[in-house]
Amino acid sequence: MKQLLCLLAIAALAAPSTLVADEARPNFIFLFADDQRPDTISAWGNPHIQTPNFDRLAAEGMSFRQNYCAGSYSGAVCVASRTMLMTGRHWHRIDDTKNWSGLPLLPEALEAGGYRTHIIGKWHNGEKTLFRSFQTGSQVFVGGMSDHEKVPLSQLSDRSSEDRLTKPVIGEGFSSTLFADAAIDFLQADDRGADPFFLYVALTAPHDPRQPVTPFREHYAAPPSPTERSSADPLQ
């Protein structure tokens, strides 16, 4: 079975205190890396790749090393993974990935508990489930794959709006940067309100097409040394 990385799935914000609305109801940030292999993390034993931010998350949080992808309806494994995450059910028990009718969803449960739910990034399960799951969203990509430097992005307005999803506009910049900046903007927004929040950030990278930005591509362009090539498998 293919091993699955779900990046330190839910992280409660403990600081700064201005971000925590209620000690009994912590804020949640969910980071979803698309097609990220578990053996690409330096903290997990890979000697070839530098991942300082992942390493910091691993050091300050908890890593689950025995997670596996349970399969998928098609080659788009992210669709089944997102379905299972949002519904709590195995994908074998859900026939329609774009219509979770009658199933309670994770964001809905949090919303019922007084949370604001906000999405940033990729959603490959259709608009109907998107509208059910989140109150608002920014820099949302409704689709499966896109040039990382030409991602069509929409904004999701609250449920009081008749047309909730704006017409897609091509983002100016690399996808990961656009999504990260949108998350920072959400966290720093003056009008975010005092309610606790569930912030779901789904990156499109490193999903195909494989096109790292130039500095990263050049950094790893040189072939590994004989010593590096003889290193043990980082997952062993």
The gist of it:
With 236 residues, this protein is of the alpha/beta class.
Descriptive report:
The chain is of the alpha/beta class. It has one domain: 3-Layer(aba) Sandwich (Alkaline Phosphatase, subunit A), CATH 3.40.720. 25% of the residues lie in helices and 15% in strands. It contains seven helices and seven strands. The longest helix is centred in the last third of the chain and has 14 residues, at 175-188. The protein is globular and about 60 Å long. Mean pLDDT is 84; it is low at 1-20 and 232-236.
**Rg to the nearest angstrom?**
19 Å
CATH level-3 fold name: Alkaline Phosphatase, subunit A
Largest β-sheet summary: 7 strands, mixed
The CATH architecture classification is 3-Layer(aba) Sandwich
Flag low-confidence runs. 1-20, 232-236
Q: Quick check: average pLDDT?
A: 84
Strand content: 15-25%
So what's the CATH class? Alpha Beta
Number of strands: 7
Helix content: 10-25%
Shape: globular
End-to-end separation: 16 Å
Strand order of the largest sheet: 1-2-7-3-4-5-6
Name the features.
globular; 236 residues; Alkaline Phosphatase, subunit A; 7 strands; 7 helices; disordered N terminus
Secondary structure layout plus pairing:
Blueprint: E1 10-12, E2 28-32, H1 52-60, H2 77-87, H3 106-112, E3 116-123, H4 127-133, E4 136-142, E5 152-156, E6 169-170, H5 175-188, E7 197-202, H6 214-219, H7 226-229
Parallel strand pairs: 2-7, 3-4, 3-7
Antiparallel strand pairs: 1-2, 4-5, 5-6
